[in-house]
Amino acid sequence: MLAFVALFVTLSVASAPFLTWDNLFNIIDQNAGVGIIAVGSTLVFIAGAFDLSVGAVYSMAGVVAALAAPEVGAAAALLLGGLLGLGFGVVNGLLATVGRINAFVATLATATMIGGLAVVVTNGSYIYVTTASFTTVGRGSLGRLTYPSLVWIVFTIVCAVLLHRTRFGRYVYAAGGNEEAARLSGIRVGLVRTACFALSGLSAGLAGILLVSRTATGQANAAGFDLVILAVAGIVIGGTSLLGGEGAIWRTILGVLLLAMIGNGFDLLSINPNYQDIIRGALIAGAVGVDTWGRRRS
Question: Is pLDDT above 80 for 224?
Answer without folding.
Answer: no
